[in-house]
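Weekly puzzle thread! Below is a chain. First person to post its structure in token form gets bragging rights.
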Amino acid sequence: MRAVEITGGSGPAEALALVERPDPVAGPGQIRIRVRAAGVNRPDLLQRQGRYPAPPGASDILGLEVAGEVDQFGDGVSRWAVGDRVCALLGGGGYADYAVVDARHALPVPDDLEFVQAAALPETVCTVFANVFEAGALKTGETLLVHGATSGIGVTAIQMAKAAGALVIATSRGAGKAEAARALGADLSLDAGADDLEASINAFGGADVVLDMVGADYAALNQAVLRPFGRWVVIATLSGARAEIDLARLMMKRIVLTGSTLRARPADEKARLIAAVEATAWPWVAAGLVRPPVEASFPLEQASAAHLRLEAGDHVGKIVLTA
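Winning reply:
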């Protein structure tokens, strides 16, 4: 099969190469997917740069989510059959013609959904569900504040929160991105470079949950705009990992500060999360309420171009590879 391999170098053009590798074989409890599309995510960039190694036992090939057809299954698999349209959450291995995955980590692709869009779902939907709805405990009628609202995670968070009956405040860089977030359903969409974020958010009533992908630069803001009993969920630290926390303010507001990662979770925990996503969030996908926009797609051999597009930071939504 064809696969994209990390070969060294700093930039994607030097670091990524299309190579031939043996086809993987589905073992007990696994399915093999004929990959038609694979999502490109920021952890892929970090792994390429040597800053986010694959967890033990995971493929060294990049790619955390794919969509395609089941073409092989191992012993003990009863749910899936050859030809089933699925998308799946991977620990690695998505940038290839075939990917092997725990059968419990796959989800059915709705009939009206193309593989390119389906490949944009597993990593983002699972991340949002685990952090906004489980750790953040967002409820109907509450307000979610999303930083980096036009990223793949951000657009998915907007759509999922709206599907759940919540209000959404979005922050992003530039008037164009602010308008894109508004078009996706944000009730208040702010340009982080032009608007007074703290004043505008508090005038709206503040937030019950913050989904924070920025980190240090927004720590003070988050503490200022969270309502009493608010939940601050950190999933990335693009502006830095060290921040000043006013513990007295956290105590007075009874704020909960938490964070998580997804990739390194044990297989059983991922299976539990996938089952919860399928029960609660997948009906929103089937109904068309959660369909994060795909900014661009690139053929597998142009993985370096896809990385450059994501690194540029001017995209809205997801970037996908097609195999």
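Puzzle host: Confirmed. Bonus trivia for everyone else. The chain has two domains: 2-121+263-322, 124-259.
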